[in-house]
Amino acid sequence: MEETNQNNQTNTSRRNFLKFLGVASVSAVSVNAAQSTDSKQPQYKMASIIDLGLCDGCRDREIPACVEACKAKNTTNFPEPIAEIPYYFPRKVYEDYSKDRANTKRLTPYNWTYVESLKVEDRDIYVPRRCMHCDDPTCQKLCPFGVISKDSNGAVKIDDEYCFGGAKCRDVCPWGIPQRQAGVGIYLKIAPKLAGGGAMYKCDSCADLLAKNQKPACEVQCPKKAIIFGDREEILTKAKALQKAYKGDKEGTYIYGDTQNGGTSTFYVSPVSFEQIQESLNKKHNFTQEQPQKMGIPHMNLAIKNFVSEDSALIKSVLLAPVAGVIAGGIAVAMANRTDKKEGK
Question: Is the pLDDT reported for residue 224 higher than 60?
Answer without folding.
Answer: yes
